[in-house]
Batch of 3 targets.
Target 1
Amino acid sequence: MARTATFTAVPGTGGALMGVVGLAAALIAVRQPSPDRWLLVWLAAAALAAIVGVTAIVLKARRAALALDGRTARHFATGLIAPLGAGAAITYALWSAGLYSVMPGVWLLLYGTGVLIGGMFAVRVVRVTGLLFMAFGFAAVLMPQYGNVWLGAGFGALQTIGGIFIARRHGG
């Protein structure tokens, strides 16, 4: 019964790989000659990380014979996707206004919110990771001059560490 109430296909190895993408993005983005190029690096990294994450969820679910069309999986996905969709719209608005320095805080806060909400249907470490992403987001809001550092720390280091923890404790 507990198994049906918890989304257990959260990918540890895939999460760690997503973190590697985040670390690479932070290192590449900081060297870009313009804010638009910086944004392009992060958007490409987000797309690649999303592909890695979805693929990893599908593979883990198949290995564990878990259904991805059940109620708990749908709740997890909705909780994660809604804030990400809001983040996409807000990013467009910030880009239109030329407010690049605000983007890191928004991204970390909304991703953290999605992970926290989705994590309500997953193992505890997912919720904790969501809260930590949100803390990094608040730090990025308070220190926008270090936005790229906070992005690397969150989408890179935190994502990698959380992924490794999930892989070791919760089966890949």
Note: The radius of gyration is 16 Å.
Target 2
Amino acid sequence: MCERCIGLPRRSLLGALSATLLAAAGPPPPSTLTGDEALHRLMEGNARYRANQVHTRDFAVSRAARVSTHRPVASILSCSDARVGPEFVFDQGPGDLFVVRVAGNVLLDEGLASLEYAAQFLASPLVFVLGHSNCGAVDSAIKVVQDNASLPGHLPELIDRLKPSALAAQAAQPANLLHAAIVDNVRRTTQAVVAAQPVMAGLIANGKVKVAGGVYDIATGHVDLI
């Protein structure tokens, strides 16, 4: 690592790296889809998934083309839960989705850098934050808030990012505390993406990228837009 990078906070380091990549790579190829069109395509795919009428795909036929072409329809920030597979939930094929997955679908620095890369270099026109029902990470945050539960390893660092949603939901006294916290977490995360400087905020303000969010119901397969 260069001497001038030593001691920089991780967010600053990622920002510097992103700026360097932007300068080196130049402008991305123009996207053929708008953010609204990409969102419509995802929701159509979710409708097919719910109806068990997903597209039949030959995964081998376009393999060679994917070697030289990487043009995702959308970028997905999703929970790591094994029951939530964005490609299946939205009935999209190989190469269609640029997926960042972390428990609780929280926006970490590395995840933000990944979304920036997809938006700037791959012309991905949509960022979709995908929460889901019965999220264990959000439920853990609620338990920490309510019962002062102690968690091992690096889990407290993750839960700290979910506490604001747990506290907000608790203050609202909803009928379903967990669901309310899950929805609030999706809202907060989409707002964080929209405000993220310097890359995402600029692309969003210029209309090149749209940000949306939703909650996937594991029982029904439905994605409810937030």
Note: The longest helix spans residues 177-195.
Target 3
Amino acid sequence: MSSLEIRLPALSATMEEATILSWLVAPGDTVAEGQAIAEVSTDKVDMELESPYAGTIQEILAEEGATVPLGGAMATIESEADDLLGGLALGRDAPAPVPEVEPEAEPEPAPEPVVAPQASTIVPAAPAARKLARERGVDLASVTPTGARGQVTPADVEARAGMVEVPPSAPDDAKRLGVRRATADIMTRSAAIPQFALRRQLLLDRAAARKAGRTWTTELVRALAAAVREHSGLNARWDDDARDIVPFDALRVGLAVDRPGVGLVVAAIEEPDLLEPDAADRAVRALVDRARSGRPKRDDMAQASITISNLGGFGVDRFDALLFPPQAAILSVGSIAVRPVATSDRVLTAALTCEVGLTIDHRVADGADGARLLQTFADLIEA
């Protein structure tokens, strides 16, 4: 075991110092690597500082309210981890180690020490967002930030809260209340978004012949992902602070999953169109099972680019889904059934059909953009 210092890392190119808002641990506490141990504030943004080592906190070197310079020691920890920095400070003025020289010999200039940059383990978040995250039980590290400086905002926490795992052991009333509150927050935000819906009928006879035992959900998810990939302008969100469109970091399709007695949860799958069809089907089935049982993985809760809401299983033929911010689009899916269809040569026949609706954030896209996405999606499903 060795005694190591926990120092304040650089969070930006211009950062000089940070203020200790509160300590989440005390001397004698055992902590895991990556565990939040303190809250600090810099540039009017509150962040959590995570321990770079696993071990036992020995001493708090900077009291709450104290201002610590960049690279300054904040605490000491007894740990079995090696000090990979070799005792070097993280501040800009950290002295270079002086090499030993033989007596009477002319000392040679010491080489500049090369310190590998460390990824910050602190999550930037507005004070109100941090408070809301605690109330909602949201892990800030799992939230997609939309603030102008890359910080997590209260709206981001609200959006993430609607996808937070509800512990299976929680009482049913507590589960439902938590989901309803999260849904209320998200839908209140959704109501403030200018949105429009486009509808069209899908002809599914060919799709039914080739899906080979895969679920309709899988076929819809893969086609929608491929369509969004082609029309990447809708794989984005509107940033109120910047007043601009910001692309998502990946292409993920969300599935709105009903948990009877609890409420709605949205679970996402990344790039399902790039998976082999049967592999995608297995992944989608497993995702839905985890979401419905209340045991999703962290990746399942990643920010979706677009969501599918399917009420066809309840006998609903058509409906318009509300946007799930910060997403700019959501697809509603009605019941799949055999219905009368008129062919191009005016012959009335029966066909397997389904009506879908695409709701779009009008700040991100126009009607023609939505129509092109919906046309591509239909072509992929019907062809």
Note: The CA atoms of residues 47 and 183 lie 26 Å apart.
